[in-house]
Amino acid sequence: MIFFSAIIFAKEENRTTTPELFVFVGEKTEVKEFSPLGEEAEWLMDSVFKAKYKVLENVYGNLGSKEVEFTVYDHYGTPPFSRYAHVLLYLVKINGEYIHCKYMFSALFKTKDGKWAGPYDYLDYNHDYNRDTSIKPEVIDFEEKAEVYIEKNFPHDLIPQYYPKPYFKVTGNKAIAIYGNYIHELFQLKKNG
Questions:
Q1: Are strands 116-119 and 179-182 parallel, antiparallel or unpaired?
Q2: Considering the chain, what is the average pLDDT of its residues?
Q3: Out of 77, 90, 110, 160, which could bridge 104 as a Cys pair, Cβ 3.0 to 4.6 Å?
Q4: How far apart are CA 29 and CA 27, in angstroms?
């Protein structure tokens, strides 16, 4: 499932090659939109960004450097992960280029005991493949408020479903996480779902 969104960007002659997956804790350095040229620009229905992130921790695979640059394709505009200073990101390497696995990320926040954790994610827990998961959200003692931004156009009547009590405390357009998971559990939920 993780590979699907990135494989479509592989050149025709390399589509049978399985791309390498990399999952890492990243710190945002830069995310800038750009316009691709040539054949790709003719059929592309996404906004395209170049992103640079510091690699703080390799979770799956080894990027082999302390910084990584990658391409992001997002149908809805600015990628939501760019709103957060720290994220768990999923990349594949295709034809020597790192590409973000479309929409795959978890916002991360430091815990008081120095670990990384992310807020409860309704979509991950309610994916058909995760309905019977043994992974459960737990109360996380975050170092600072773990605030999740709620889009302005997000349907108001769905806020209690996507940011439910007791997992969140909703204030205006922000949901403050109370429950969440540590990075290896977040990765497992994404991988399974």
A1: antiparallel
A2: 88
A3: 90
A4: 6
Q: How many C-beta neighbours within 10 Å does residue 179 have?
A: 17
**What sign for the dihedral angle of Cα 63, 64, 66, 68?**
negative
Residue 189: in which H helix or E strand, if any?
A: helix 183-192
Is it the case that residue 175 has pLDDT exceeding 60? yes
Alpha-carbon distance 83 to 98, whole Å?
Answer: 20
Residue 151, Cα to own-chain centre: how many angstroms? 16
What tokens were used for 143? 């170092």
Q: Which of 84, 146, 97, 157 is nearest to 120 (CA)?
A: 146
Count Cβ neighbours within 10 Å for each residue of 70-106 and write b for 16 or more, e otherwise.
Answer: bbbbbeeeebbbbebebbbbbbbbbeeebbbbbbbbb
Dist. CA 177–CA 179, nearest whole Å: 6
What 8-state DSSP symbol labels residue 63? -
C-alpha to C-alpha distance for 84 and 107, rounded to whole angstroms: 6
Q: What is the pTM of this model?
A: 0.86
